[in-house]
Amino acid sequence: MDSADSLSEAGWKVFEAVEDVVDGATCAAKGIIGPPPWLWATLAVVGASYIGLCVLFMLLIGFRPKPRPPRTAEKQYTTISSDGSVAPPQPLACWFERFDARRIANQSHRLPANELYQIEDPEIFMTLVVPAFNEEERMGGMLEEAVEYLEAKYGTNTSGKSGKANGNVEKQTNELKGWEILVVSDGSTDGTVQTALDFARAHQVGGDEPIKARKGPWNTSAKSTRIPTGSIRVVQLEQNRGKGGAVTHGMRHARGQYVIFADADGASRFSDLESLVRGCEEAQDKLGRAVAIGSRAHMVGTEAVVKRSLLRNTLMRAFHLLIRALTTPKTARIRDTQCGFKLFSRASLPYIVPFMHTEGWIFDVEMLMLAESADIPMVEVPIGWKEVKGSKLNVVKDSVGMALGLAMLRVCWGVGVFSRE
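Given the sequence above, the corresponding C-alpha cells read:
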C-alpha cells in the first residue's frame, strides 16, 4: 500500500475531484463552478460553534462546583457523657459510605434500583441538622425551642415497628421514638462548639445544676427541658464549606426516619415541624419517599416582610423570577425554595444527598431539582417565620452569587457535566 501504482485509476480520479473542489483556482481554470460562498460561511460558523461549545464544556468542567471530601476528623462527633464530661470523639453513623460503595460497584455491573438506593433502617424517629457558622449568640434560644418540642413530641427512643426505608412498599409509621440533633459547626471561629456542648451538659437528664433556660424567637417564657444523654452531637468541619456543605454533611450521617434541617437562628417556628411530618406522610410514594418544604410564601405583605428594606425585597423578587426561569417545572412552581426548614423522609436521602454539588446558599434549589428528577413527591407547607438579627447573608453580594450559582447549576445538569452516573 506504499506504492503509487497500488492505487486504482478510479481512486486517483476521486483525489483529483477533491483537489478541484478545494482549489478554487483549479476549478476556475477548468471552468468548474466551485462551492458557493454561503457554504464556506456555513462551515465556518458550524466549526466555530463546535469549537466554542467544546471550550465552554471544558470551562464548565474546570469551574463547576466541587464539594470538598470530608476529612477524617469530620466523620466524628463529640457529645456529653452521663457524668457531664466531654466524651472522646466517636465515629458518626454513615449510610452514605455504604451507598457510595454500591454506586462504585454499579459501574462494573448494574444493580437493580431497589438495591442501589437502599438505606439502612432508622434508629430513631427524627434527626435535626443545624448548620452553624459563628452562632454562639443565637443558637442557644433555637436549641431551647427545638429540644422542648422534640422531647415532648417524640420522647425517648423506644423499640417499635419502624417500617422500611429501603425502597419497599410498606408505609412508615410513627411508632419509632427518639431524636437527635447534629450541630454541624462550619469552621466556626467563635464559641459555637462550646455553646452546643454547654447546652447539652446543662440539659441532660441527671444534671445536678438548675437549667438556665434561654429565650428563643418564639418562646414567650424561658422553659427548660431535660434531654437524654448523647442526644446532641457536635460535628466540627475544619474549614468553612458553606451552609449547603454543612447541611449535606449532616444529612449523610443522619439516623432518623425523618431528617429536618433548620437554621441556627430559630427564625422558623419549630413546632411547625408537626405540619411538615404530616405533609410528608400524606405525600410519600410507595417507596416511602417525600420532601416537605417549609414555606413563607403566605407571609408576603405581612409585617415581617414589609419591614425589610426595599433593596432586599426587590432582590428577593428578582431571584424568585430567576428560579422560575431556570429551574425544572415542579421546582419552578415552589413559591419559597430558600426557607431554611425542609424535611426529608429517610427513603428519599439516597436519591438526593449523594448527588449534591453546591455548598453555598443555592443548595436548596439543587436538592429540590434532584428530588424532582427522581420523581420524589414534594409538598409546600406554610410555617411561622420571624426576622432574626445577626444574619450572615450579604444581600447584594450573596444575591449575585446565588444568581450565578443557579445559572451554573442549571447548565451543568443540562449539558451533562453533572449526572447521576
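The longest strand covers residues 124-132. Try to locate this feature in the C-alpha cell string yourself.
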